[in-house]
């Protein structure tokens, strides 16, 4: 295994790639991915990723996620650690966004047909019980646009009820170690995108850690930012439950399937205040 430190120069890497220079190493290929996002060439960045990354979402969902995370206007990417073993490279890095804020990331690159391609991109969650989360995944996103049933934003009281119901259904699945009932409770759209087995595997860490989210019933959620209907017509609710000793931090996405809002994406973690 080879360990090295790398500082990506986005403009230079893009220039070399455009000039047909030597094939890029893994950190340079990863930096080029972000350079394409910065230039607004989202489809090009999406197409450059490996097949499994592409099949985990649509290009439209990828574009929306990258934009909402501030990755489309990142000013720099610094790779702080690179570990290459055979045809796989694991990179730790930090993105600086246009507003000056920073986001730690963990990237996996794979070598296919002599070229390094992005396989996964995860956000590092400081102080999280589960250290990373994957926003570029069907587990955390709905696929495609929800134009059929565009709805007005429900009252906050109703959103609190919907979110708590999802948390408690999810918690019930964790306690049982069985995601059968939870899988049946989510939207048909989400069910069409993943199996019950895949859903359980995505959250196996919660079962293994014996996480219990029952405390959400005793407190009111803090929404940050305010819930909204996003560009895909999905109800998005993000925030946390101020439970102790760890907060329940969440982002949930719901699609309207007559006659209810049904879960289509779930990002959830426990974070120390």
Q: What this model shows, in words?
A:
The protein is of the alpha+beta class and 273 residues long. The chain has 2 domains: 2-124, Roll (Nuclear Transport Factor 2, Chain: A), CATH 3.10.450; 156-271, Nuclear Transport Factor 2, Chain: A. It has helices at residues 10-18, 26-38, 42-48, 51-55, 59-68, 156-176, 180-185, 188-191, 196-202, 204-208; strands at residues 2-7, 76-85, 88-96, 102-112, 115-124, 132-133, 222-223, 228-229, 235-241, 247-257, 260-271. Helix 1 (10-18) crosses helix 2 and helix 2 (26-38) packs antiparallel against helix 3 (42-48). The longest helix has 21 residues, at 156-176. The two termini are 36 Å apart.
List keywords for this structure.
Nuclear Transport Factor 2, Chain: A; alpha+beta; disordered N terminus; 32% helix; 273 residues; six-stranded antiparallel β-sheet
Radius of gyration: 19 Å
How many helical stretches?
10
Count the strands?
Answer: 11
On the 0 to 100 scale, the average pLDDT is 82
Strand-residue proportion: 25-35%
N-to-C series of helices and strands: EHHHHHEEEEEHHHHHEEEEE
- Main β sheet profile: 6 strands, antiparallel
Number of domains: 2
Global shape: globular
Low-confidence stretches: 1-21, 140-149
Q: What class, by secondary structure content?
A: alpha+beta
Q: Say what the CATH topology of the largest domain is.
A: Nuclear Transport Factor 2, Chain: A
* Major sheet: arrangement of strands: 1-2-3-4-5-6
The helical percent reads 25-40%
């Amino acid at each position: 295994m080879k360990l090295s430190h790398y500082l990506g120069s986005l403009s230079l890497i893009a220039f070399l790639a455009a000039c047909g220079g030597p094939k890029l190493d893994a950190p340079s290929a990863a930096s080029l991915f972000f350079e394409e996002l910065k230039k607004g060439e989202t489809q090009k960045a999406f197409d450059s990723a490996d097949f499994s990354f592409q099949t985990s979402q649509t290009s439209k969902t990828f574009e929306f996620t990258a934009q909402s995370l501030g990755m489309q206007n990142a000013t720099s990417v610094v790779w702080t650690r690179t570990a290459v073993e055979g045809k796989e490279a694991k990179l730790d890095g930090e993105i600086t966004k246009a507003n000056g804020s920073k986001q730690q990331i963990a990237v996996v690159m794979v070598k296919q047909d002599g070229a390094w391609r992005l396989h996964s991109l995860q956000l590092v969650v400081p102080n999280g019980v589960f250290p990373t989360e994957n926003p570029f995944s069907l587990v955390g996103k709905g696929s495609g646009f929800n134009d059929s049933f565009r709805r007005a934003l429900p009252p906050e009281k109703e959103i609190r009820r919907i979110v708590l119901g999802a948390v408690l259904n999810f918690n019930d699945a964790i306690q049982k170690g069985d995601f059968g009932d939870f899988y049946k409770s989510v939207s048909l759209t989400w069910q069409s995108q993943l199996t019950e087995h895949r859903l359980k595997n995505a959250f196996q860490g919660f079962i293994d850690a014996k996480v219990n989210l029952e405390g959400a019933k005793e407190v009111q959620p803090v929404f940050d930012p305010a819930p909204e209907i996003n560009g895909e017509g999905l109800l998005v609710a993000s925030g946390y439950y101020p439970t102790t000793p760890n907060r329940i931090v969440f982002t949930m996405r719901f699609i309207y399937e007559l006659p209810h809002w049904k879960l289509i994406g779930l990002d959830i973690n426990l974070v120390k205040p």
